Amino acid sequence: MSIVMVVVLTACSKNNGENSVSSNAPTSSAAASETSSSELEPVTLTIFADWVINPLSKNIQTDPVMEEIRKKTGITLDFEPFLGNGDASAKLSALLASNELPDIIVTSNNDIINKLVQNKKVMALDDLVTSRGQNLTQNFSNALNLMRLQSPVRDGKLYFIPGDINGGDYNPYLSANLWSVRWDLYDKLGRPAVNTLDEFVDLLKKMQELEPKNKDGKDNYGLGLFMGEAWGGGLVTKGGANAAGMVDAGGNGIFLRDVAKDELVPRLSDPNSAFWESLEFYNKAYREGVLDPESATMKFGTILEKAGAGRYLASYGSWLSNGQNEKFIADGTPEKGYVTLPIATKSENIFANAVNDAGNQFKWGISTTSKNAERVMDLFNFLATYEATELIVNGPQGLTWDMVDGKPALTAQAIEDKKSDPDYSKKTGSNLWSNMKINGNYDNPAGWKTNFTWSPEYIKANLAGAQKNYIDAMGYNYPMEGIDSIPNNTQSFSLQASLHTEAGSDLATKETNIATYAGTATAVLIFEKTEADFLAGKEKIINELKKMGIEEVFTFYHDEYARIKEEVANMK
């Protein structure tokens, strides 16, 4: 079985600024190039980067971050090959066909990556990484090995460096993967422990009684789903399964990964799985009037609109709250707002945060026609440092931040400008080039967050509304401190998501038929009007899935995951 390119966690991340190109940071600030830029001959490197989404006004960028990169490395980046206008993949395909490739190629298109490698249009990087990529080899050897494992020619060589290695979706304010709940209502109810999903339904019903209408007089609900979108139905395990330590990713919904055991377990064929627990939870919520009855046909845009109007009292991830905390403050009701709570959450081995241990979707390569390959690797090596990550995320030292008592801190002027100046990112370069990070780590081993707005000091000084009330009530320094204290709360799903059956095989056909049937049949169950009907439907579906060969398909994935784990371990 071949391994597809690793699934990316940051595909939905938002870009900021005119030239915004991405997101995320390991090595200490001192780990930059040992040769100062004054000792290096200045060089201009051409770059094609498909993360350039907003068109650039000029090919040489001169914002403070780009200028600092030039000072640190002696390298000027020329974006002439792609300024963000038009279709990036079509442009790169044309460059490939004409053999006019730039020095640096950054692409997320797996088909093009395969062609570049198979047609020997990009260099094998192993020797360059060994001689000039010390930050990469010392800090990211696992990610490099995963890239070797995924090479389309399977020759054990390294052709691309992944971006944003060890980045992910961590945020000190809210979790994207656990239950977000209205703190003010939960607090009024006495902050009861919620150890099961049944208890969660009961809690949400009481919260609805406290606030049955939103500010516009429309009905509030505990939760909403957007089952009118195919991918919405695939997210029903989020929140519940994650809190139970089950990662739902890959395999067309055939399996979950048990975090504690690090092995795959049945998702659909086990009647006691986290998937079926989640469906039973939503069915009870529907029968109790807690689930928005329009969930069966709701589209993603509609659920965001309702969430933005404050009509849901909880969601299975912060991204479904649609900025409602800020809206509550703007509406003059700062006491209202959401926090991440440990609803039916295990005491260890959970999925609160995702990490890109194999990097994100953007792969960095060097064309075989480049006459400056060593300098390109110097750039890659710099971008793999904490110094580079902190520069890209926060802007240059002296402009937006300085060291205070041995730790970096934003200046008072920068804090004020971030709040009041809509052009702050363009003027300072802060987060303007977030997709340039190769080092995606959030924690600098020197003892601070690479995003300086995530320091406890900054958060406590600038937090407002319900989240401020929450940390004061709980004695926390920042909203996610309680969840962060749970051991083994951050998970990668790059390996499990890379698994697939062989295209055109009998097993692949069975898998496709199973996924199609299960996606439709299980969604209907949520809206059964009685528990008896739900249980009868559940039994019928599981029996049908077994007749369709789900146990055979699951066994393949189970064994393949164990095999690939061993293969990766042997590469270390």
From TrEMBL:
Residues 17-36 are annotated as: Disordered. Residues 18-36 have a biased composition (Low complexity). InterPro entries: Bact_solute-bd_prot1. Coiled coil: none annotated. It comes from the Bacteria. PANTHER family: ARABINOSE-BINDING PROTEIN-RELATED. This is ABC transporter substrate-binding protein. It comes from Paenibacillus agaridevorans.
